[in-house]
């Protein structure tokens, strides 16, 4: 390992461990990123009362916004209602971190909730019917499915011709896991579609607003990344972006 490896910030969620509040991120995200992007990593706590994105962003070479059981609060995209759980501390840090990292010209990558956060941070909206809409295929396993079964719920995506993902994966389509109840409603200005599900729902997007790439996917490449070459390609792209090679 090189002491000069880039440092990736991985956002944490507010969780409860026992009876105590905790800042936590599932280890699979950190391991997949550190191994396949060849990076060091730091966990970024979602404690906006004690820390701001302005303080932490300059110390990071890139940020990864992970998936989470929680949803972005609808008022952030000028909507109301919606079902929790919500994590307002994460909303505050994640949305401001997107803006700050872009301002510094540093890469921002997102997975699932992170994908949705980036769209919202840049002015897009979300839809909340991806498991129960007549317009869409099922984007989540049926109720009662076990944890591993949720990640066995698969569907194909078509990659945009000559997009960053198509070039990185070296193919025009993938089969991906699908574990989400929400998705993109209106795509934020400046984002380019990188992947679509068969029903047309956007599953990946990218941008290069200030030199460095912003790339996010709705699926979970961190799940079983060691056995999935396509997942490894996603994190390889993250590593390249952190080194200014993408």
| Class inferred from helices and paired strands | alpha/beta
Number of strands: 13
Q: At CATH's second level, what is the architecture? A: 3-Layer(aba) Sandwich
Helix content: 25-40%
Q: Would you state the CATH class?
A: Alpha Beta
Instruction: State the low-pLDDT regions, or none.
Output: none
Tally of structural domains: 1
Multimeric state of these chains?
Answer: single chain
User: Gyration radius, to the nearest Å?
Assistant: 17 Å
Structure commentary:
By secondary structure, the chain is of the alpha/beta class. It has one domain: Class I glutamine amidotransferase (GATase) domain (Rossmann fold, 3-Layer(aba) Sandwich), CATH 3.40.50. Helix content is 26%, strand content 24%. The chain is built from seven helices and 13 strands. It has helices spanning 27-36, 53-56, 88-103, 113-121, 147-151, 164-169, 229-242, and strands at residues 7-11, 13-17, 20-24, 40-44, 62-65, 108-111, 126-127, 154-159, 173-177, 183-184, 192-196, 202-207, 214-217. A nine-stranded mixed beta sheet has the order 4-1-5-6-13-12-11-8-9, with helices on both faces. Strands 2-3 form a two-stranded antiparallel sheet. The chain has a two-stranded antiparallel sheet with strand order 7-10. A hairpin with a 2-residue loop joins strand 2 (13-17) and strand 3 (20-24). The protein is globular and about 45 Å long.
